[in-house]
Amino acid sequence: MGSTISKQKILVTGTAGFIGFNLVKKILEQGNEVIGIDCINNYYDVKLKYARLKETGIVKEKIIENKITNSTIFPNYKFIKAYLEDIETLKSVFKTFKPDVVCNLAAQAGVRYSLENPMAYINSNIVGFINLLEAAREFPVNHFVYASSSSVYGLNKKMPLSVSDNVDHPISLYAATKKSNELMAHTYSHLFEIPTTGLRFFTVYGPWGRPDMALFLFTKAILERKPIDVFNNGNMVRDFTFIDDIVEGIIRVIDNHPSGNTNWNGKSPDPATSPAPYRLFNIGNSTPVKLMDYIGAIEDALGKTATKNYLPMQLGDVPMTHADVSHLELAVGYKPATTIKEGIKKFVEWYREYYKV
Questions:
Q1: Would you call 50 a catalytic residue per the annotation?
Q2: Is the pLDDT reported for residue 4 higher than 90?
């Protein structure tokens, strides 16, 4: 069934993206008023992005850059194709719409791509993020929720990974920009009393997922009888988290506004909280899965065996992730629980239907 948000105006960025699309669809069905922002860049197949938008009634032919597009399905949904780097457009959206909540899911994604095109990450993840914070300062909101990433843990080896751990050793620029977002959010929470919550997502997968992610790449290759690239010779462990669990976690957090932690101690500072209205949460399945078992579950769902091309670890990758979600559970009473067998089955069903395979 899932949780329901109290009725409010929510600005969601990244609504043509994987997580943003799934979140918007859910909160629109609950009757909330939403304005979506996405630049629809070509980092991956824009046809998939437009197909997601179409599911929420945003028709490609009606989209004009920096102009409001109304949904043909949800009367309470407006969309604007815009870049977060465009501060004037962003502020005009805040001024006109007056959102109660910001949910920032827009970002230049991908660890590996950050090695090739670092400026894309600075523009979207740093400049875009500060523009959102500035807009939220000028036009105050009740809660500023934003996507961080499990990649911020970088060289951390103590498992499970906890939001109370230090994360000062990122190993990709993508991770560094996400860590920067957390620092910037804390500063604005401290200076301007903006309640901010950062959500560290752990390897999200599921229907409508990103084509650059392992599940999508593996499924496509196996169906086309092509070999799959298996990095670190298969010796990888990931906390794979199903999209519906991520959306449920976000929804529960939206109404859970942080207040300052009165027990916070500057002599032994807890990175997860602050005297300011600032919080961090992990959202992960907290059940790490070996990459070879994940591939096995994909093979089972497809009824086909993969040809595996074993390769060394890629720069920027980490060998293992495992989320400690105790802070999330304590705060909002929720812990993701979808098994990879269930989640992969749903993805494969969607993939076959979407691509008519």
A1: no
A2: no
